[in-house]
Amino acid sequence: MITMKRTETRAVTIKNVSMGHNEHVYIQSMCNIKTEKTEKVIEQILELEEMGCEIIRVSCMDQNDALAIKEIQKAIHIPLVADIHFDYRLALACIEAGADKIRLNPGNIGSKENVIKVVNACKEKHVPIRIGINSGSLEKDIHEKYGKPTAEGMIESAKRHVAILEELDFKDIVLSFKSSDPLLCLDVYRLAAQTFDYPLHLGVTEAGTTMTSAIKSSLALGPLLLEGIGNTIRISVNGSPQKEIPIVKDLLKSCRLIDQVPNLIACPTCGRTQWDMEPVVNEIEQYLQKINKNITIAIMGCAVNGPGEAKHADIAIAGGKNEGLLIKRGKIIEKIPQSQMVTRLKKEIEAF
What we know:
This protein is an alpha/beta fold.
């Protein structure tokens, strides 16, 4: 399935996941519920797991959040990353509670003594650290030096944080370089791949709504994936994290990096369409988000393009006037009314 060789980096192990030295690009997301609300967080993570999420991040804003990690870990099955800013004590609490990885910039937690405490705890528990560089929060001197966020400035910032950990002989590091500007993301990740041998977490930050995020993320991250850059990825979408997983799965499938993802083909409709196609497409699209099969489903609006496209699908509907032909692997099976289309398509998909 994979058509390009991924850039080889240092291997970093997060719980039962090893990234950087293999071809797999791990799908990540982040909970949008305060972590101390344990039951709701667990419920959200389990749903994200079912959708295909492979690594999950939670925020840690206080000790209650840190303590909740222990209970959350008992109920979930994928690596748990604790997101921490500025307070080294929260990092220590999250590591003690069982976080599999922490997201923390070592240059932002005070004295070297504080950093040493965190690094020693990470070494003892085999917990990696993700250093996250954001174009909107670069150090003042770097911003003044370059005048605006640049790829070179973001790399310079990362070098400072990485050097702190490397001086303490800590190299279980993952790096991210995020911006709301997709072209800046593209530039900085390319430069990072040439500069560091650590795994890269891909993402466009503050990408906006489902539509704008899909566009910006595809523009920035698609070329990187095709060039073999990136070891884990999150598509950031405003609102529920459940919106993120289908986008990243489609992106990875389109880049031929995963195959156990359904492919839904649907025509845009036109004046030839004589049935209410959009509700059927929308319901099937929602249904497919939790289906992990390499299957192509075509839902076509009319007899002009429908039969031809349907021939290349595993299961298809070629619509007519308030009805459609059910087609399997190019063979017409039967004619079904629109009222039965969704139910029948789901049945055929489940049996595939």
